[in-house]
Design goal:
19% strand, Rossmann fold
């Protein structure tokens, strides 16, 4: 098992149940499963501060009871699978609480469900999963539904590769999975064709010629990246054309991948809202579980 301590934040939602099922699968391979529940008292505190002679104790006690019930529910599911998990309830905001639990228990992987918000709801509200992706320092494994959790989550891995440091980090994790979990790895690069069509015609170039040249260079680059990470030269590589996130998700489905591995730049603040992220788009749209690897500074 390539990961020693796996944290699964649990709130009993369908995505969280999928994450727990995935964490249990990893636990059966030897990982210690840590169940975390975050009790967010911010709303109760805000109400208490704005009211006169208001006692928030009953509401806080109810939140604590709910947190303990969530832990009991998740623990029962683990024990039914033959695992004895570690558990913790923290009083914090969701993202900060999850990261605090991960740090305290030296977790080297966080497994989370995602609700796949899109449009304005995503832009302005974000999500706890994406907050952990942006601010965390360990890989985050995301899953959407229970139906897409494989008994062997690392059996068939699609590694998304481009010309970036996050891509190098993803390749190294894919190589680690190949060595420790016997994963079958395929590298995937995507030629983003829209900018080529938009820019080449203005200068009189044939876009198809440019795309062909970029495909050749990208194929060589993906092979080189995988080899630098320690994978054999015979590792298969596929090159797609189109929108990067869309084509990576489609390729994973075509190849019956059980896992997509991708890197993330970890952009934060206002830049995130305007620049977006291929990794986050993959997380929002992929039915296949996605392992997002941050660059280690």
């Amino acid at each position: 098992m390539p990961f020693a301590h796996v944290l699964v934040p649990y709130d009993a939602s369908d995505p969280a149940r999928a994450a727990l099922k995935l964490a249990i699968a990893l636990g059966k391979s030897g990982a210690v499963v840590v169940i975390g529940t975050v009790v967010d008292e911010a709303a109760v505190v805000a109400e208490a501060s704005s009211a006169v002679a208001y006692d928030p104790s009953p509401e806080m006690e109810a939140l604590d009871e709910e947190g303990n019930e969530l832990i009991a529910d998740a623990t029962a599911q683990c024990r039914a699978a033959g695992l004895t998990p570690v558990s913790q309830v923290v009083h914090e905001t969701p993202v900060a609480g999850i990261l605090a639990i991960a740090k305290e228990h030296a977790c080297d992987l966080i497994v989370m469900g995602t609700h796949a918000r899109t449009g304005l709801a995503h832009t302005f509200l974000g999500s706890t999963t994406e907050g952990v992706l942006r601010w965390g320092h360990v890989p985050v494994l995301t899953v959407r539904t229970v139906d897409h959790v494989a008994a062997d989550p690392f059996a068939v891995v699609l590694a998304a590769i481009d010309d970036s440091e996050p891509s190098d980090a993803a390749a190294h994790v894919a190589a680690m999975l190949a060595k420790t979990a016997n994963a079958k790895v395929t590298g995937c690069g995507v030629v983003e064709t829209l900018p080529i069509y938009e820019n080449t015609t203005d200068y009189g170039f044939n876009p198809e010629d440019i795309i062909k040249e970029v495909r050749t260079e990208l194929d060589a680059h993906v092979h080189a990246t995988l080899e630098r990470a320690g994978l054999p030269a015979s590792t298969p590589v596929t090159i797609a054309e189109g929108d990067p996130a869309e084509m990576i998700v489609a390729t994973a489905k075509e190849r019956n991948a059980t896992l997509v591995v991708t890197g993330t730049h970890g952009r934060r603040g206002i830049r995130r809202f305007f620049l977006g992220s291929t990794a986050e788009e993959i997380v929002r749209t992929s039915d296949t579980p996605v392992l997002v690897v941050p660059v280690r500074r």
